[in-house]
């Protein structure tokens, strides 16, 4: 069992189907999690509700990539209960510097209103956490993230757990055994998160899939 945390250990753990969590902000120990049920987005099946579609099409926001990764992590940890301690924060910031961890930011009037971050290995994106400081902030971030992963040729979009919030956007739950099969396939493929040929199209994102809301 992995007993300590470093950028190298993090990358190894993800490839085994593990991810780290601390019991709290001030916790000194790291727990390695491998849940029996795993949350994922099936790429191409991201659901945009009619209300979210209107929000996206309004375009009173702007999107950036990797413009303030540490700040996104800080925002994600800024809650009464968090699993992000100093060791986790420092290791993911180092992974970001090394090109393995990325963030999507949503801005409105120069204010950071939403964001999401995660780790990429091969054609797998391991979503770690998200935050929202305005209505739909994290949903907008996820919609743009999904579009980028889909167009860049990613195979796996891991959300770790399935929450009501993620399920409303189309995430599903699979067994750990199913997850490990998908993980192996993703690790044997190549995809580039910062694909220079990628461009976001608001109309395409907003109309990808709709359901009543």
> How do the helices and strands follow one another from N- to C-terminus?
HEEEEHEHHEEEHEHEHHE
The global form is globular
Structure summary, number of beta strands: 11
Discrete helix count: 8
List low-confidence stretches: none
Structural class: alpha+beta
What is the percent of helical residues? Answer: 25-40%
How far the N terminus sits from the C terminus, by CA atoms, comes to 44 Å
SS strand fraction: 25-35%
Strand order of the largest sheet: 5-6-7-8-9-3-10
What is the averaged pLDDT score? Answer: 94
Query: Mind summarizing the main beta sheet?
Result: 7 strands, mixed
The Cα radius of gyration reads: 16 Å
Give an overview of the whole structure.
This protein is α+β, with helices and mostly antiparallel strands and 213 residues long. The chain has helices at 7-15, 50-58, 69-77, 86-97, 137-151, 164-167, 176-187, 202-206, and strands at residues 19-22, 30-33, 37-41, 48-49, 62-65, 101-108, 111-121, 124-132, 156-160, 172-175, 210-211. Strands 5-6-7-8-9-3-10 form a seven-stranded mixed beta sheet, with helices on both faces. β7 (111-121) and β8 form a beta hairpin. The relative contact order is 0.21.
Structure summary:
With 213 residues, the protein is of the alpha+beta class. The chain has helices spanning 7-15, 50-58, 69-77, 86-97, 137-151, 164-167, 176-187, 202-206; strands at 19-22, 30-33, 37-41, 48-49, 62-65, 101-108, 111-121, 124-132, 156-160, 172-175, 210-211. The protein has 8 helices and 11 strands.
